Amino acid sequence: MAARERMSEVLKRWVGEERLRLEPDFEKGVVLSAEVPRDVLHEVMRTFETEGWYLESLTGLDFKDTLELVYHMNRYEPSARIALRVPVPRGEGVPTVSDVYRSALWLEREVWEFFGIVFTGHPDLRPLLLPEDADFHPHRKDFGRVHAHRRREEIYG
Question: What is the CATH number of the domain that holds 28?
Fold first, then answer.
């Protein structure tokens, strides 16, 4: 069994089959997308790390009704990229995974800086690119004028 199939089975146990979206044609750049609740994120990431996956990237998304984190996990195999989507209600935080993946130290700082999502337990949450006294998050849709602000279910169905 390939690593991606093994992780698909693991994710089914963690989050349920209804929260998984298979992308067999790799059209969206991932083979699998899973919606992961915040309360199991750390355990899921620990499982990925134990199985030999690495954290490729982390970004935030801003919808009208919620924020979302997208963790791209990958492995040195063809077509193994998996997206973990973590909905984050506005004003709430998510646990850091920097103790599992050291690369998350910088990635979480960047997402916090640009989207305002707080990573609880992060050892050094301070700006990377914006001035120290910046009181705004430039990738949030409420910053400046935005014409394409949609609700999460409008995008994902």
Answer: 3.30.460.80
44 vs 27: CA distance, rounded Å: 24
Rounded to whole angstroms, the Cα distance separating 84 from 29 reads 13
CB 3 within 8 A of CB 76: no
> Letter for the amino acid at 28?
K
Confidence of residue 151 (pLDDT cuts 50, 70, 90): confident
Strand, coil or helix: what is 106? helix
The answer to whether the beta carbons of residues 61 and 71 sit under 8 Å apart is no
Domain that residue 92 falls in: 3-156
Q: Tens digits of per-residue pLDDT, 80-118?
A: 899 999 999 999 999 999 999 999 999 999 999 999 999
Asked whether 108 and 114 are in contact (CB, 8 A), the reply is: no
Q: Is the dihedral of CA 12, 18, 20, 26 positive or negative?
A: positive
Q: pTM for this structure?
A: 0.87
Token output for 96: 């850091």
